[in-house]
């Protein structure tokens, strides 16, 4: 106090040495901001993204246990030869069965995905198409709930074609690469049976079919064995291959001999697509 009640204010002044304080540069500030805003995408991140994309959101999910990792470029269609969708799902989840597929479609059109599309399922077994001798490594397997002795219901076929359209678009699968199990394993397998509507699928862009209005006789030098091989069939067991071919394209006659009509069909397919 001075002179009575007049207050006196005392200020403590601290001198700051600005040379001792380092301010970040503009480039350092930008680098720090980018480091926060842009996370580093590791291999694990990329695989996780692919894994999520490989699961169809429109299908139920019941995971199978037998698989390896691979990239799909074919679709192989099967019939289950069992009695129900539930039985097939159970089969693909048993340790001792050593078999699986990516999708199972019920008679009512219910689609159940059992493996991620990017995984290698165990559905084709010993198989060959063209130069590919391990179809499991390059294909997606689709099982249709059917005992092999009955027509495929409309709801099931419609669900299959919706799924095929999704897979074809997502993985850019060529239309010629939609096959049946019997195509890639003639003599060993006969699915998806003579009841399967291959012509209808081909009209939607899934597989090939012949032009019924233009079945001209093949020339005298037409080699039907080479034609079957060029299409993709394994001709090491020629009789079995002819049966598989006729089961798919002739249907009403599945004998081991090619008739004149059968040769016309084969020649038409050969000229049309291959």
Looking at this protein, list some descriptive labels.
globular; 274 residues; Lysozyme-like; hydrolase; cell wall biogenesis/degradation; EC 3.5.1.28; Amidase_domain; 34% helix; six-stranded mixed sheet
Describe the structure.
The chain has 274 residues and is an alpha/beta fold. The protein has two domains: 59-206, Peptidoglycan recognition protein-like (Lysozyme-like, 3-Layer(aba) Sandwich); 210-274, no CATH class. 34% of the residues lie in helices and 11% in strands. It has nine helices and eight strands. The protein has helices at residues 26-37, 43-53, 85-91, 154-171, 181-184, 198-203, 224-231, 238-249, 260-273; strands at residues 60-61, 67-69, 74-79, 103-105, 111-113, 119-121, 139-144, 178-180. The strands form two sheets. It has a six-stranded mixed sheet, sandwiched between helices. Strands 2-6 form a two-stranded antiparallel sheet. Residues 9-16 and 33-40 have low confidence and may be disordered.
